[in-house]
């Protein structure tokens, strides 16, 4: 942790953090990272650029994108960026037109844009539900489809990595995002088959608790529980997800498609999943069943 207001790896960290990958691995390649100025996206952008790619960074906030581009260019890395809301299909399509106008190619799309707010599902408003589904399922789909259409039309191969969430457990307070991410995982498996003849690979990475600024939407108590969500008893960092995405999305993953790689320190094997706070009902054995309708 880097301070009260900021979580996870800084640009200074990301500029020098050792990587398992070979320098020049992405020379001549162009990569797009949505949510690229967020925590996981930022690490992915730094890694891909350090490996030789020209990295295009997108997100909603121009200021965040500009800050990252400044930091990366200062170290001599090739990058550019555009503010694009992934929930706007026309804007997404225009963005991909622009990428082809400027670069004539795209080799890798990493969809890291996403997020949710913690709330008990029974209290979700229609607007809140739609905000999370539109962001994480529809927005990711608009990006995937726009990229695939460009690759098909240009006769070029391509690769997509979708950053999702672990969906194997019942996670309290995030049912909307789990629904959306399960949709993305199923969608990715389906189009991995449909798009294989086009030379397009589609994979997903499911992070466990990864310390980033995205954690700011959770309370200190919830954040304190994150390291206990896996048997390693610690949070991961954004570099763990960046290196996983590069593995699946780059040449090391050339025979992998439709796959889901979980990077959670073994969290999906672990018992404790109440990351957003435990409902009162579950807090003690004494209260078990005391006031719960049993359906009889
Ligand atoms: C087993 C292994 C374990 C593994 C352990 C797993 C750990 C999981 C930890 C996961 C961590 C992360 O993903 S962290 C990284 C992700 N980053 C984030 O989540 C931050 C970004 N989040 C967001 O931007 C928002 O939540 C999101 C909805 C997605 C964005 O959409 P918008 O910008 O359109 O949202 P807003 O305009 O703010 O809100 C739209 C509506 O959503 C609802 N809404 C928004 N915030 C709300 C809130 N706090 N409480 C209630 N309702 C809310 C309201 O209805 C809002 O409308 P009004 O009523 O009109 O306002
Ligand atoms: N950190 C963690 O513990 C975990 C994270 N994840 C998932 O990984 C992904 C990345 O998370 P992380 O980097 O930690 O979170 P951040 O909040 O740091 O980054 C997410 C980025 O997504 C962008 N974004 C959100 N909505 C939109 C939109 N509609 N259009 C374009 N960009 C958008 C935001 O950019 P801007 O502010 O400019 O809009 C933000 O920078 C998310 O999907 C997250 O839910 C999954 C499991 C655990």
Automatic annotation (TrEMBL):
It is an enzyme of class 1 (oxidoreductase). InterPro entries: NAD(P)-bd_dom_sf, Peroxisomal_t2-enoyl-CoA_red, SDR_fam. It is found in: Peroxisome. It comes from the Bacteria. It catalyses: (2E)-hexenoyl-CoA + NADPH + H(+) = hexanoyl-CoA + NADP(+); a (2E)-enoyl-CoA + NADPH + H(+) = a 2,3-saturated acyl-CoA + NADP(+); (2E)-octenoyl-CoA + NADPH + H(+) = octanoyl-CoA + NADP(+); (2E)-dodecenoyl-CoA + NADPH + H(+) = dodecanoyl-CoA + NADP(+). The keyword Lipid biosynthesis applies. Its main location: other. One of its GO terms (molecular function) is trans-2-enoyl-CoA reductase (NADPH) activity. GO terms for biological process: fatty acid biosynthetic process. Keywords: Fatty acid biosynthesis, Fatty acid metabolism, Lipid biosynthesis, Lipid metabolism, NADP, Oxidoreductase, Peroxisome, Phosphoprotein. The keyword Lipid metabolism applies. It holds the Pfam family adh_short_C2. Its EC number is 1.3.1.38. Pathway: Lipid metabolism. Interacts with PEX5, probably required to target it into peroxisomes. PANTHER family: PEROXISOMAL TRANS-2-ENOYL-COA REDUCTASE. Belongs to the short-chain dehydrogenases/reductases (SDR) family. Participates in chain elongation of fatty acids. Catalyzes the reduction of trans-2-enoyl-CoAs of varying chain lengths from 6:1 to 16:1, having maximum activity with 10:1 CoA. Has no 2,4-dienoyl-CoA reductase activity. This is Peroxisomal trans-2-enoyl-CoA reductase.
């Amino acid at each position: 942790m880097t301070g009260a207001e900021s979580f996870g790896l800084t640009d200074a960290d990301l500029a020098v953090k050792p990587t398992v990958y070979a320098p020049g691995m992405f020379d001549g390649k162009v990569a797009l990272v949505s949510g690229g100025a967020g925590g996981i996206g930022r690490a992915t952008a730094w890694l891909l650029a350090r490996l030789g790619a020209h990295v295009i960074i997108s997100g909603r906030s121009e200021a965040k994108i500009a800050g990252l581009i400044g930091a990366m260019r200062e170290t001599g890395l090739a990058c550019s960026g555009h503010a694009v809301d992934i929930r706007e299909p026309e804007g997404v399509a225009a963005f991909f037109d622009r990428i082809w106008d400027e670069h004539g190619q795209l080799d890798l799309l990493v969809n890291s844009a996403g997020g949710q707010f913690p709330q008990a599902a029974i209290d979700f408003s229609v607007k809140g539900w739609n905000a999370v589904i539109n962001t994480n399922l529809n927005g990711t789909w608009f990006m995937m489809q726009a990229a695939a259409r460009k690759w098909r039309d240009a006769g070029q191969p391509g690769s997509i990595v979708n950053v999702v969430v672990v969906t194997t457990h019942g996670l309290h307070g995030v049912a909307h995002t789990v629904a959306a991410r399960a949709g993305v995982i199923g969608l990715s498996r389906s189009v991995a088959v449909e798009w294989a003849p086009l030379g397009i690979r589609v994979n997903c990475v499911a992070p466990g608790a990864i310390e980033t600024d995205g954690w700011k939407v959770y309370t200190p108590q919830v954040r304190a529980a994150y390291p206990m969500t896996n048997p390693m008893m610690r949070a991961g960092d954004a570099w763990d997800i960046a290196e996983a995405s590069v593995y699946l999305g780059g040449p090391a993953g050339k025979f992998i498609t439709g796959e889901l790689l979980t990077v959670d320190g073994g969290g999906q094997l672990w018992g404790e999943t109440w990351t957003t706070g435990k409902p009162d009902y579950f807090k003690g054995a004494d209260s078990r069943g005391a006031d719960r309708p049993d359906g009889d």
